[in-house]
Design a protein that fits this description.
The complex is a heterodimer of chains A (278) and B (295). Chain A is an all-alpha fold. Chain A folds into two domains: 61 residues, no CATH class; 166 residues, MetI-like (MetI-like fold), CATH 1.10.3720.10. Chain A contains 15 helices and no strands. Chain A starts with a helix and ends with a helix. Classes of the chains: A mainly alpha (278), B mainly alpha (295). Chains A and B meet through helix 1, helix 2, helix 4, helix 5 and helix 6 of A and helix 1, helix 3, helix 4, helix 5 and helix 6 of B.
Chain lengths: 278, 295
Amino acid sequence: MKSQRTRSKISPCVIYIILFSLVILMVMPFAWMLLSSFKEENEVFTYDMTWLPSKITLSGYRRALTRQPLLLYGLNTVIVSTVITFCQLITSVLAGYAFSRLEFPGRNFIFLIYISAMMIPHQALIIPSFMLIRKLGLVNSYGGLTLPFIAGPFGAFLMRNFFLSMPKSLEEAGIIDGCSRLQVLTRIVVPLCKPALATLGLFVFMQSWNDFMWPLIITNTDKMRTLQVGLALMKTDIYPDWPMMMAATVMATLPIMIAFLGAQKQFIESLAFTGVKY
Amino acid sequence: MRLLKPRTLGGEQTRTALLALLPSLIVFCVFTVYPIFHSLYLSFFNVGLVAAQGRYVGFNNYLNLVKNPTFRKAVRNTITYTIGVVPVEMLCSLIVAVLLNTKLKLQSFFRTAFFTPVVTSMVAVAIVWSWMLEPNFGLVNSILHKLGIQGPGWLTTPQWAMVSVILLSIWKNLGYNMVIFLAGLQDIPAEVYESAAIDGVTPWKNFWYITLPLLKAPLGFATIMSVIKSMQAFSQIYVMTGGGPANSTLVVVYYLYQQAFEFYRTGYASAVAWVLFAVILAFTLIQNRLFKLDV
């Protein structure tokens, strides 16, 4: 209703044309990535550029998997992202529950301090964190890759807000029935907050999958590198094999792309969450 | 019944809360509180990454920083980058959001298309863009060639390298702000526009006097996030240009990375980290005040 009135002067046709041309700009890099990945190694080096490969070949994918330890990078990324996501879900539920349901001295003050940590740029902490991880002997290990991220203020903030919007009556009934707090949490609260957990889980998984700077400095052998670090290092070749690199990029982004297309609503919600709540 | 007795609950709840918060607070203290103070401490020492004990140098690291032409260049580049990214990004995402807020078919298709770059990793898209901008065989120059234009070496000439990095960042983050603006637009009650329509207000005035003021909070939030994100740019620089050519895309975080992890000047790099932290904090607070937000 409102939109039709405000936009009455601009015809929908014009809007479609503007949007479609912008969409082409948005999608073009992905199309270029995908099409290049199916080209022969030398086919890309032509001044007479074509969009479509003359013959679809998987040799770029084969080279990416055989000449580069891409599978190992992938495995490391899966392990690191899964561990971080799993731990962060647990720590966030616990912290969110404490900040919303339990009364204790200084609760709001501690919460405020914890939340304000979201304003600290990650890069300002990276040197001492690195030194600490090195002192613990965890450089180039899964421990070093995951430990700093197993809990975070964003998760606690998100879960607390979710709990505050949930009625207390079920939990109270549980306590009256003689459940312990832990039982209330695992049997009543957690099943009820599945949607929030899915949102947080997707967000954390995507962030750790895409993280670059920390894995870059904390790993120093192929054995421990993640996909993002591996991709970036592939790019430093003096004579870049573009079809192979595009194939590697396709494979490295595919899991997140599929997850995004399958659960768009949760993805968009989780990323815009702080924006909507301002 | 226990719920009704707050006094006995106080002790039990405090203990339970402490237990529940323990993992979060340990990580917070070890990987946020301690590092921020440790990096302040380090910034007053001349210390390497491996050396156990440094030499106390007072404010020398900060003084050297201010005098260092490369750091000043990095600061100027970061400002250029931020000014290049934020306004254009805000404008584009606002336009897209307003257009999408009409009753369109295919709305979810459009939203997906604009949002896809947001969920893709910066490293991956930076590699794809590097290939698109490749001077001889890349997509952009090939198209320009067909139009009879000789395209520049996008990533190899100082003036175009910065432009390329800016364009990539705008392309990548447009969808994020679009979603925030779209949520804000949908919160505006229809009655506001209905009464304006009765008064015969033109669409442009509608936008300027009704939509924009009511979008103040999301606009403020998105601007803050965008400025902070711009000041932290790293991955796209690392992948596309490595700070070059001739330091033309050297930004503060990349400088920090080089000093700390390539030249092992830990104390000096910590001073850079603290300057970055202070500037970002100041920006957040000023913008909060400006837009009267509680972030």
